[in-house]
């Protein structure tokens, strides 16, 4: 993705992490320069968010600078700093963050957890299938110190499912009612599922999760899901989980 301004002077490396502040890492300069740089980073995030939404056929973007300012999420930008005679282009974007979710395993046990999530992922059309997605994803895994199987993915596209299978051998996705997907390996081994023994899955008290945001692809109000109510109103099988449907969205 090309920009009118010099991307390389703002984004100082081939992968740049941006969070709430929208300040690129290593920034130095006075206040006026700072606001100029932040405005340009906001432009980049917005345009990459729009491109990702278009690529996924979504009516509105999941990723915007405005939302990033309000959320504890990270956007990783992939930059080709040599393109355009050194002005640089942005070739990809990956957004991650933790979400409070109810996740069911294959046996119907449900967990109330806040796993690291893949929220938005996009490589420019002209650069797809050249390994850039893997490069960006691997960087994220390393920075966040997480294994691929421990991630929840927000409504993955067929391309992303194929990507996860090809690069990480993850298949047989478990689709959740909240439209997230997890894979085998997300849950602890059966011997670790006992109460209080799992470091990966945090069991919340009944009043532990009452709030959720209204951003993103699941932000619009939806009618109650009768199947969801039936399932959630069953007595918990293996945990003291709260009952009643809860959908965490971005
Ligand atoms: C939570 C979410 O964000 S869901 C939405 C995910 N994003 C999209 O679907 C937007 C459009 N797609 C893309 O931006 C990219 O294709 C990504 C991000 C999914 C993958 O990035 P890439 O740079 O293409 O991945 P990379 O080159 O490392 O790996 C290629 C593999 O990804 C998968 N893949 C990439 N493009 C395609 C495609 N057009 N059709 C099917 N599979 C694809 C395949 O497994 C492919 O391996 P193959 O070429 O041997 O078949």
Automatic annotation (TrEMBL):
Q: Which CDD domains match?
A: NAT_SF (cd04301)
Q: Does the keyword Transport apply?
A: no
Molecular function (GO) terms for this protein are: tubulin N-acetyltransferase activity
Gene Ontology CC annotation, any one: microtubule
Start-end of Polar residues biased regions: 235-250
The record's keywords, sorted A to Z, are: Acyltransferase, Transferase
Q: Which family does it belong to?
A: Belongs to the acetyltransferase ATAT1 family.
Q: What is this protein called?
A: Alpha-tubulin N-acetyltransferase
From which organism does this entry originate? Answer: Aquatica leii
